[in-house]
Design a protein that fits this description.
This protein is an alpha/beta fold. It has helices at residues 5-16, 97-102, 110-120, 157-166, 182-188, 191-198; strands spanning 17-21, 40-45, 53-57, 65-67, 88-95, 107-108, 128-132, 154-155, 171-174, 202-205, 218-223, 232-234, 236-242. Strands 1-13-11-5-7-9-10-4-12 form a 9-stranded mixed beta sheet. Strands 2-3 form a two-stranded antiparallel sheet.
Amino acid sequence: MENRKLWEQYAEWKKEYRWVDLTRELSVETDHWSGFPAMEVEVPYDYPAGFFAHRYSLVSQYGTHVDAPCHFVQGTRTLDQITPEEMVLPLCVIDVAEQAAANPDFICGTAEILAWEEKYGRIPDGAFVAMRTDWSRRADMDNVGEDGVKHFPGWGMDALKFLIEERNVAAFGHEPKDTDAGIESAVNGYAGEYYLLEQDRYQIEMLCNLDQLPAVGALIFCGFPKAKGSPGFTARCLALCPKA
C-alpha cells in the first residue's frame, strides 16, 4: 500500500486542483517566427494501408516551443540535457497585460517584478516565471508598424538579470515569439534572449492561457522530446493550479 501513496495523493489533488493547457494547437496554420517556413504535413499511410500515420516537416522552434541554451550559445546544453527535475517547477505569473494593451512596446522591468513581490511575496528559488501579456489572443502577433518594426512586448534585460542573479529563476515563459520586445531586437538584436540562454536557463515561447492562472501557487509541467543535440522543439506545457 505504501507504493500507492502517490496515486492516492493525486486522487485527492484532483478534487482541489485543475489543469490548464498552456499550449497552442500545432498545425500548418499555427503562428510562428516570420523567418521560418510553415510546417508541412504528409500522410504516408492511411487506413487502407492498415494504419494512419503523419510525416511532419517543421523547424525545431515552432508554435509553443522550448529553447535550450544551445539555441543561441554554442557549447551549452542541448534539449536532451535538460533534466526531469527542471521540467516540473513552481510557476509565478507576472501579469502586465494591462500595460501591454496600452503600449505594445511595453518592456517588463525590475520595477514590475518588485511590485509583484510586494503583493505576492518573494519569487522562490528555482521557479518558472511567466510574463502574461495576453498577446496570445491576438490574430496578428507580429504587429509590424509602418516603420517596418515589429511592435510587441518583451522582457527587459534588467528584469532578466534580477530574476537570474538575485532570484535564481530556473526557466522563463512568455506569449510573444521572442524574449526581447520588438523595438529592442530591432536595435540591439536578441540580447535578452542570448543572456538568458547563456546563463544555462531554458525558456518556453508562445505560451497561451496564462490569464487562467493565479499569480502564485501553480506548478508548470513542460513536456518536449528528448531530442539528442537539439536546440529546441515544439513543446506541450500544462499547469496544475487550485480550483478556487
